[in-house]
Design a protein that fits this description.
The protein has 355 residues and is mostly helical. It has helices at residues 2-12, 22-33, 43-49, 54-72, 77-91, 99-118, 123-140, 145-165, 170-185, 190-210, 215-234, 242-266, 271-280, 326-334; strands at 290-297, 309-316, 321-323, 343-347, 350-354. The strands form two sheets. A three-stranded antiparallel beta sheet has the order 1-2-3, with helices on one face. Helix 7 (123-140) runs antiparallel to helix 8, helix 8 (145-165) packs antiparallel against helix 9 and helix 11 (215-234) runs antiparallel to helix 12.
Length: 355
């Protein structure tokens, strides 16, 4: 009956075509949404335009629309910038490290560059240009390591320029640190590696000072300490005696474990933090991550004219920051012979302090 009705409607209504589901329904939806424009999309976009995911089809359609808009109005900053964003998101849906993905990322970079010519003060365009360059470096590294390194250096420059316009942006600082950390892995010698690692640590620390609850910055700072410790342990050219190097490795690993532990405490549901903590848990200092004095107003005096303060010994572990009990105070000072002293360790200019 349905077939007969469909044939009658096709004869009576010009252009009507029956659709009962499956591939025909997908194509009908794509055509109605405007996402499927035959013969006008580049090959990667054509494939995405026919994808079963509606969001991907919408992105492919948006990419085509922005391409048309920028061709007709090359001085439209918003169209150029948004075209870069769409291309960058679409590139993540293509085969990793493929020529098509790299080409789409290069096009996204060119869109950001054109947008910045129209609006040099756009920190958002500079930031996303840096992100696209970082993605491009990962995409081309297997086939063209030299281009990957060049893209990372340029990404570092774009993050720096973005931060000049929008200082203390935690995400830009974090991404800049990741770029420097990646560059350190391909450093020519130990001195260059140390300089890049130290700079990466500075960026992660600044990100955390700007946003103390930034779990990714905390985790990345832990990983940069960990990878540097592993590199120091295995590098026979490191300028230090074996005893000094072993002490530095242990200290760096302890600090790495603490930052990873804190990232897990901030976001315990994240699987990557849980897995990383299982690797470094045995490197955590015991019995507490930190112990030291804190000064706070007495509760009864808060808000009064005669507000008074009290100085107490606090401990921090994986559960909480709290005022130490008598036993906890005794445990936290036992390692120092009962004296609450400030301890420091340093390796090649990277200093670590704890109580």
């Amino acid at each position: 009956m349905a077939d007969a009705l469909a044939r009658d409607l096709e004869q009576q209504v010009d252009g009507f075509k029956a659709c009962f589901g499956g591939e025909e329904l997908k194509r009908a939806c794509a055509t109605l949404s405007g996402a499927l424009v035959s013969g006008r999309l580049p090959a990667p976009l054509s494939a995405l335009a026919e994808d079963s995911d509606l969001h991907l089809r919408e992105l492919a359609f948006a990419a085509r629309q922005y391409a048309v808009a920028t061709a007709e109005q090359p001085d439209d900053y918003d169209a150029l910038y948004n075209h870069g964003l769409v291309l960058q998101e679409l590139s993540g849906k293509l085969q990793p490290a493929s020529a098509e993905q790299a080409a789409m990322l290069r096009q996204a970079c060119s869109r950001y560059e054109a947008a910045l010519l129209l609006k040099p003060s756009s920190h958002a365009a500079l930031y996303n240009w840096g992100v696209a360059l970082s993605d491009l470096a990962r995409s081309v590294k297997p086939s063209s390591p030299a281009e990957a390194v060049a893209a990372l250096h340029l990404a570092s420059q774009k993050y720096a320029e973005s931060l000049q316009l929008h200082p203390r942006n935690p995400q830009a600082l974090n991404n800049w640190g990741l770029v420097l950390q990646e560059l350190s892995a391909d450093a020519r010698d130990w001195a260059e590696r140390h300089a890049l690692v130290r700079s990466a640590m500075d960026k992660f620390r600044l990100a955390l000072r700007s946003r103390p609850d930034f779990d990714r910055g905390c985790y990345n700072l832990g990983t940069v300490f960990y990878t540097f410790a592993m590199a120091l342990q295995s590098d026979t050219d490191a300028p230090a005696s074996k005893q000094a190097k072993d002490l530095s490795v242990r200290t760096l690993l302890a600090v790495a474990a603490q930052y990873i532990c804190l990232a897990h405490a901030l976001q315990p549901a994240k699987d990557i933090y849980r897995k990383s903590l299982s690797v470094v848990r045995q490197m955590l200092p015991l019995p507490f991550l930190r112990a030291g004095y804190l000064t706070a107003p007495r509760s009864r005096s808060i808000g009064t004219v005669t507000e008074t303060f009290r100085r107490d010994w606090f401990v921090l572990d994986h559960r909480s920051l709290r005022q130490a009990s008598s036993m906890e105070a005794s445990l936290s000072t036992a390692g120092a012979g009962g004296q609450r002293v400030l301890c420091t360790a340093s390796w090649a200019g990277i200093s670590i302090c704890w109580r």
